[in-house]
Amino acid sequence: MTTSPATSATAAVTAPASRLTPKRLYRALALAEAVTWTILIVAMILKYAAGIEWAVLVGGSIHGFVFLAYAFQSVLVGVNQRWNVGRIAFAVLTAIVPYATVPFELWLVRKGHLEGDWRFEATDHPADGNWVNRLLRWFLARPLLLTVLAVVGIAALFAVLLMIGPPKIG
User: Fold this and answer.
1) Mind listing the pLDDT tens digit for each residue in 142-151?
2) Cβ neighbours for 39, distance < 8 A, ≥ 6 positions apart
3) Which among 29, 26, 150, 124 has a CA at the least distance from the CA of 83?
4) Rounded distance between C-alpha atoms, residue 44 and residue 38, angstroms
5) What is the pTM of this model?
6) Long-range contact list for 131-140, CB < 8 A, 24+ apart?
7) What angle separates helix 22-50 from helix 54-80, to the nearest 10 degrees?
8) How far apart are CA 15 and CA 91, in angstroms?
9) Which among 29, 7, 33 has a CA at the least distance from the CA of 20?
10) Model confidence over 86-138: pLDDT tens digits?
11) What HEC string does the chain produce?
12) CA 20 to each of CA 25, 48, 143: distance values in angstroms, whole numbers, following the listed order
């Protein structure tokens, strides 16, 4: 089967737009974190207004898992984008305040802090020689492994935190 020049040109133009860039990953999880805040707030209303106790368990679990995923990707994207430790920590902390991840993501975009692709290769930048950046590049070269380890690690941390006990809300 051959492709026409128009089909090849369309594929070439649309292929890069479909890639998961640091900006797209950060935006997706910043929005997911805000959505799960809504789920948790609705669950709390259901618990206290209608006595539906399980709503907070479900809503809180969804929110907790997405919170951990957002925190992980904040570190991943932050290291990739060469953010300082303070900006990475602040990114994680924004998930504690309802809906704060969205304005922070917009600020990051406006300031250009999410521009650029994943850093697969070392550059002349002094930080590229440290172990964190070498580890980042090693995992970025193995996206399936990175994804599996991230999901398993987040799930394991989530399970440990649930064994310790869910946060006491009200």
Assistant:
1) 999 999 999 9
2) 59, 62, 63
3) 26
4) 10
5) 0.85
6) 132/79, 133/79, 136/76, 136/79, 136/80, 140/80
7) 160
8) 29
9) 29
10) 999 999 999 999 999 999 999 999 999 999 999 999 999 998 999 999 999 99
11) CCCCHHHHHHHHHHCHHHCCCHHHHHHHHHHHHHHHHHHHHHHHHHHHHHCCCHHHHHHHHHHHHHHHHHHHHHHHHHHHCCCCHHHHHHHHHHHHCCCCHHHHHHHHHHHCCCCCCCCCCCCCCHHHHCHHHHHHHHHHCCHHHHHHHHHHHHHHHHHHHHHHCCCCCC
12) 6, 40, 11
Q: Which two tokens stand for residue 107?
A: 């600020």
